[in-house]
Amino acid sequence: MIFPTNNQQVIRKLSKRSLKGNKLRNLFAVIAITLTTILFTSVFTIGLGMLNSFQESNFRMAGGYSHGGFKSLTKEQYEQLKAHPLIKESGLTVTVGLAENEGLMKSPTEIRYVDENVAKWRYIQIQEGHMPQGVDEVALDTVTLDLLGIPYQLGAQVPVMYLINEEIVTKTLTLAGIYEKEQGVDVSQILVSLAFIEENLKDVEDSIQNYGVGDITLDVMLKPVANIESGIDQIARDYGYEADGKGENGINVGVNWGYSHARQVQIDPMMVIAGVGGCLLIIFTGYLIIYNIFQISVMADIRYYGLLKTIGTTPKQIKKMIRNQAMYLSVVGIPIGLLLGYIIGSGLLKIVMQSTNYPVAYGTLNPVIFIGSTAFALVTVWISCHKPGHMAAHISPIEAAKYSEVSGTGKKKVGRTKPTSLWAMAYRNINRNKKKTAIIVVSMSLSMVLLNSVYTYTQGFDMDKYLERFVVSDFIIGHANYFNVGKHFSFPEDQVDELFVEQLKEQEGFIEGGIMLYDVYGTRDQDKDLDIQLYGMEGTLMENLQVIEGSFELEKFLTGEYILEGVDTNDYGEVYEERVQYEIGEKVTLTPSGESSVPRTFEVMAKIQQNHNATVRYSIGNSASLYLPAEAFVEGVGEALKMAYYMDVEDAYEAQMNAYLEEKTSEHGNMMDFESKQRYIDDFKGTQNMFFIAGFVASFIIGMIGCFNLINAMITSILSRRGEFAILQSMGMTTKQLRKMLVIEGLYYSGMTVIFSFILGIVMSYGIVKPLGETLWYFSYTFKILPLMMVAPLIMLLGVAVPTIIHHLIGKESIVERLRKMD
Question: Could you count the other beta carbons within 10 Å of the beta carbon of residue 13?
């Protein structure tokens, strides 16, 4: 009778001794656990890093990370509100206005006073000098100093220009502080002192001309509240103010949209599916190799576990021994994987963010990265060693003593013995354990299939579709204010320079161009009570129209009797019908502003897709965008302002023209600026490369796992069959024949991997990649198999190299020595 024992200390000792006796197994297990943890940590680092980067970038675009604030206050209101008990910290901002210096026209720059709290919340850290204190002191960032041509030297004289009563005021101040402008911050700051505000804005009257000048803003950080917006509204209500800004007691409040945006982000179901699918793929990949390592180890030591059962070890204790070994190995592999995974993930995060609208990556050491990765890795290890542990625990001592790796219960045919070949022997060898063979083939195939799928997906990105959505012409030239989000195209002074345009026409490679006109003074459709954003176009602009409805006939359009409506569409070209104002053939009567203006009637010829880059870049509520030929526009509006010039050049001269524009627009006094098609090409390639690099890294790591699986299986197989090989060699098999048989086994593994990869790759391409890609508006599917064809020879080479090297390393023992070691 067997008396079971329950000695935990003995179990731990046996687990440790078993580890010491399986050093090669331990090495492969640690590598497998490390690679699995690297994959998990990389995914967590990229995912949480992206969320953190989005929020940090939103804070910088929003102007800081304060919770919100109260705007356009009186001094009395400021003192009253900042004392509210819900406010943890407060800060003061007083606005002077936008800088009007010539060198800053292409870079939005605000002039204001901020106290220490606001400076901190706006990422302003003085690196040299101090915050302005005296009436004639100023602090600037290095970007603004460069644009003004002022050296990084404290005490330098800084001319500061701003508008008061529609007149430019110039003050020469002394540089007291220098700081670096944060990446992602759109607007630069010229910081003045509170003494400057009191001295220079004390007599400024509140009027439309001085809108915003002298505005007092209270920025706040609240004590813990359930909702920031409700907390700020409560502060206003507690003092009798209306937070909507209306009425006699109305007050302007603002909630930092960097926080509200984070709460309102809609979760893309496809991203959730991709994330869950990625985690399951990592678990499955890690399971394949870790399971195979422990399965092979258990089979090799099965007699040992059988002997343990004869002395009273229970199945539960044997399972625990195997789990203990896995956990001991995890203690080594997981920390290494966490470190390497975080480094790799941080590097990939930078690549990923560069392809988004938030190009700056802000990494995070969020504990969730390491806790989550560790948890997933441990779950993978536990699942992987469960079945091998079950097998070792439930085999009887007699079965263990007779155990053979050969699987299958099929009947053997009895007949005459036929001559056999090395190919047949190798085939029988790999079929001894079909499950092990299947795991090796699947684990090696995963990386090939993933690489092919990523390649197919990224090559499906259609640049022509992408550019069609954004690009009107090769180059857009306009006044700096046209591209300036803080100023816009608003006045006659903002027109494109005709002399500059003529110089461009003389450049080599120029094909054609066209001016876009715009009515800044306002036109109305009195019948529909609509404001009209009216454009006039010429040249190349009329040749690249995307007609949504109706038909565009150039000759009829040039008569000046017809008009086009610009309609908004989504990325797939679907019209926002609720924004459409007219029907094809409808008569439209337009009345320009001005007492002497005469209404004119046009017929709607067609509806065209409105491209943001071919507009004034801002919209008016309850309005329609209409387009006339330039000549009819001039006749109807009178003063036609030249908004921008759109130009095409020969492909071979695009880089040359880009360099010319860079040089000319950066010259002192040149107020022109430009955008090029290359910007969108770079954005497209960045997105494409991001997906490919991330996919390639994942494929490479999974491929390494597959290779280690093959190497581990081959090493274990050869070691466990050393006695068998000795018998074969004693019967006349030469070393060369033995090595050839092992190479053939490797080729069988590789060949099955390649065949399975091609079959699964085709299924994945049509079944997953194609429907997934078609959710992207600029995707055009084409079947790709090039990566599989390129990797297949490497897999076959691996099948030859691995057994050859292993046989060379362990084949130095003599036949007699190997026979002696047999049971």
Answer: 12
Answer for the pair 32, 708: CB distance below 8 angstroms, yes or no. Answer: yes
* Contacts of 259 by beta carbon, 8 Å cutoff, 6+ apart: 67, 228
SS3 675: strand
How does DSSP assign 1-48, residue by residue? -------HHHHHHHHHHHHHT-HHHHHHHHHHHHHHHHHHHHHHHHHH
Cβ atoms of residues 698 and 485 within 8 Å:
no
Mean pLDDT computed over 12-34: 79
pLDDT at 161: 92
Half-sphere exposure for 98 (CA within 13 Å, toward CB): 17
Other C-beta atoms closer than 10 Å to the C-beta of 217 total 20
Residue 113 forms beta bridges with which residues?
Answer: 94
Sign, Cα dihedral of 265, 270, 273, 279? negative
Q: Would you state the structure tokens that stand for residue 736, as one six-digit string? A: 């060369």
Q: What is the mean pLDDT of residues 337-349?
A: 90
Burial of 780 (C-beta count, 10 Å sphere; 0-12/13-18/19+): middle
How crowded is residue 165: how many other Cβ atoms within 10 Å of its Cβ? 11
Q: Kind and range of the H or E element at 699?
A: helix 677-720
Angle between helices 735-764 and 434-459 (to 10 degrees): 50
Separation between Cα atoms, residue 128 and residue 347, nearest integer Å = 31
Residue with tokens 């094909």: 511
| Residue at 133: amino acid letter | Q
Of all helices (H) and strands (E), which one includes residue 810? helix 786-810
Tokens of 28: 């492969």
Question: Which amino acid is located at 349 in the chain?
Answer: L
Mean pLDDT taken over the chain: 83
- In which region does residue 129 sit, left (phi positive, over 0), alpha (psi from -120 to 50) or beta (all else)? left
Report the 10 Å Cβ neighbour count for 416.
4
Three-class secondary structure assignment of 278-310: HHHHHHHHHHHHHHHHHHHHHHHCHHHHHHHHH
Task: Kindly state the tokens that stand for 27.
Answer: 């090495």
Q: What is the pLDDT of residues 361-370, one digit of tens each?
A: 888 888 999 9
